[in-house]
Amino acid sequence: MAVNWLGLVSIGVFYIIVLGTGIWASRKSKREEKKCSGNRSEVAMVGGRNLNVYVSIFTMTATWVGGGYILGSAEMVYNPTKGLVWAVAPLAFSMSLIIGALFFVKPIRSKNYVTLMDPFQQKYGNKVSAVLFIPALIGDILWIACVLGALAYNTACSVSCLLTRLLNTRTYSSITMSDGSAKERSWIVSVNSARRLCLSFARWLCVPFILASPFSANFTVAAVTKLHQEPWIGRLELEDAGRWVENILLIAIGGICYQAFYQRVLSTATDAQAKITCYAAAVFCPILGIPSILIGAVAASTSTHI
101 falls in which pLDDT band (50, 70, 90)? Predict the structure, then answer.
C-alpha cells in the first residue's frame, strides 16, 4: 500500500503548530515580565498578577480537563460494573470550582499570597509550614512524574500507531521515529494549556464519526430497550450511595487543596476576574466531558453486540 501523504502532512502541520505556539508563548511571557511591577517570585509563580481573564479561563479549564478527566470519564462509562452514574468527575469538578470561587478566592487574594502554603506559614510559623510542605512537595513530584511518563508513553504509542498506518512500517520502527517527538513535546505542553483546551474542543469533531461508524452500535436504542441491562448507564444501589457521595466530595473538596487552582486564581488582576474564571471553568468542564461520555457509551454498547 502507498504512503498516506495527506495524513503524514497533517501530523507535520500539527507539530509545527505545537512548536510555533510554544515559541510564541515563550516570547510573550518574557515581554509580559517587563510589564509586571511585582517581585521576581510573583512574576514567576503568579504571572505578576495581571493575567488576562480570557487566558485565565482557558488555563483554569485546561487544568481540570486533562488526560485523566478525558480518559477516565470514558473508561468509567465503558466499565460494565460502573457506568454513567459513576462518572462523577464532570459534576465534582464544577462543584470544586464553584466552592473555590464562593469561599476561597477573596480571602486568599486579599492577603496577596503567592502559594497555598503562605497562609499556613503566616498562621503557624515556619516550622509547621515546613512540615506541611513535605507531603505537598512529594505529591507534586509524584504527580509530575506520572504526567510526564503518561505524556511520553501515550504520545509515543499514539504517534507510533498513526505512523504505522500512514507509512505502512512495522510498529517498532514507528516507535523509534515518534520517540523524539514525544520528548520534544513534553516541554512545549507546559506553555500550551490554551492550545490543549482547543484540542479538547476538537474532540467534538470525533463524535459524529464515531456515532456514524457502521461498526458502532446505536447506544440510544440500546439504552431505551434494555435500560436495566445496559452497562454504560450503570446503577446506583442504596448500599453504594455512601461511596458515590464520597467520590464526589473527594474530587470536589480535594480540588480546593490543589496548588494549581490558587496559582490560576492569584494570577488574575482582580477578585471579580478570578471568580469569573472559576465560574466559566465550572461551565466548560462538564461540556468538555460530554464527548468522553458519548465515546464510552458507544464503546460499551458496541462491545455488548460483538
Answer: very high
**CA trace torsion 191, 108, 248, 138 (10° rounding):** 60
CA distance linking residue 157 with residue 92, whole number of Å: 30
> pLDDT tens digits, residue range 202-242?
777 778 888 887 777 777 655 544 444 556 888 888 999 99
pTM exceeds cut of 0.90: no
CA distances from 162 to 8, 36, 167, 178, 214 (A): 9, 43, 8, 10, 21
Q: Return all residues near 97 (Cβ < 8 A) that are at least 6 apart.
A: 60, 64, 255, 261, 278, 279, 281, 282, 285
User: Can you read off the three cell numbers belonging to residue 12?
Assistant: 507535520
- Measure the CA–CA gap between 196 and 59, rounded to whole angstroms: 9
What would the pLDDT profile of 36-62 be if each residue is shown by its tens digit?
655 666 666 776 777 788 888 888 888
Q: How far apart are CA 298 and CA 219, in angstroms?
A: 6
